[in-house]
Specification:
alpha/beta; Rossmann fold; 4-stranded antiparallel sheet; 6 helices; 10 strands; globular; binds adenosine-5'-triphosphate; binds magnesium ion
């Protein structure tokens, strides 16, 4: 259990979740999206979360990333106890340590691509010049080096998704959470992106969590967690012990 003496990182863990619950709305309209989630992710791994639509994957990722408050339970992320922190402290922690690739890419339409990718660096106080240089390098890494001055609305879905990936990586966050990062990508681009994400996750002090429905990318997982109806129900030590035919 997480307690005052517990240290996530000294136990080789990146994230430690215990009994986390989240209900949206109240009364008859209430939806219990998380019903007591227990699981952990390790430093140096890429963990995939799979499960049917509506089972709570995006909710869980948002809670872990610190973008959504939860109701009950304990959550340690890189040795920070989010359940004990104030919203302002969580926001500060998230800015430095967490990258988030959203299911809807959430790019800023009025900014060009270099500017979009620069945002996480600028909010951490990096100079515009340095931020834009790094942003350009990341755009090159995702195959969009020539499009830096273009705007998100001129891009295909897959191109927008790659910009969102570049933006999540640019400040080298120790924890990266990715919601369906290959949903708009063709097979080859998806494979390239997954290799990039796995290489990030396998760095000894980092961790990548990926939610996906895309069975073409399961093979990149170091471990797989199955979610069902608001809970993590099973964790597999390799993707090969996971049988997709049991999925809904
Ligand atoms: N902001 C919200 N307000 C009310 N209910 C919500 C909200 N976000 C999610 N829910 C509900 O919580 C449950 C879990 O939703 P969530 O988005 O986490 O599912 P998911 O597993 O990511 O699904 P998908 O695979 O379709 O993306 C669903 O029943 C959903 O309707
Ligand atoms: Mg979702």
């Amino acid at each position: 259990m997480a307690n005052d003496n517990y240290n996530t990182e000294s136990n080789g863990l990146a994230v430690h979740v215990r009994g986390v619950t989240k209900t949206f709305g109240a009364g008859e309209a209430a939806t219990r999206a998380l019903k007591g989630v227990d699981f952990e992710t390790r430093l140096g791994e890429m963990l995939m979360i799979v499960g049917p639509s509506g089972c709570g994957k995006t909710t869980l990722l948002s809670v872990i990333a610190g973008t959504l408050d939860f109701d009950q339970g304990e959550l340690e992320v890189l040795s920070a106890s989010l359940h004990k922190m104030k919203r302002r402290e969580i926001t500060e922690f998230r800015k430095r340590n967490v990258g988030f690739i959203f299911q809807q890419f959430n790019l800023i339409p009025t900014l060009n691509l270099v500017e979009n990718v620069s945002v996480p660096l600028l909010i951490n106080g990096v100079s515009r010049r340095e931020a834009e240089q790094k942003a350009q390098a990341l755009l090159e890494e995702v195959g969009l080096g020539g499009r830096g001055k273009d705007h998100p609305l001129n891009l295909s879905g897959g191109q927008q998704q790659r910009v969102a990936i570049a933006r999540a990586l640019v400040h080298e966050p120790r924890l990266l959470v990715c919601d369906e990062p290959t949903s708009a990508l063709d097979k080859d681009t998806g494979a390239h992106i997954m290799e990039l994400l796995r290489a990030v996750g396998r760095k000894p002090d980092r961790c990548v969590i990926v939610v996906t429905h895309d069975n073409r990318v399961f093979k990149y997982a170091d471990r797989m967690a199955e979610m069902e109806d608001g809970r993590v129900t099973r964790v597999h030590d390799s993707y090969s012990s996971y049988d997709p035919s049991t999925q809904h």
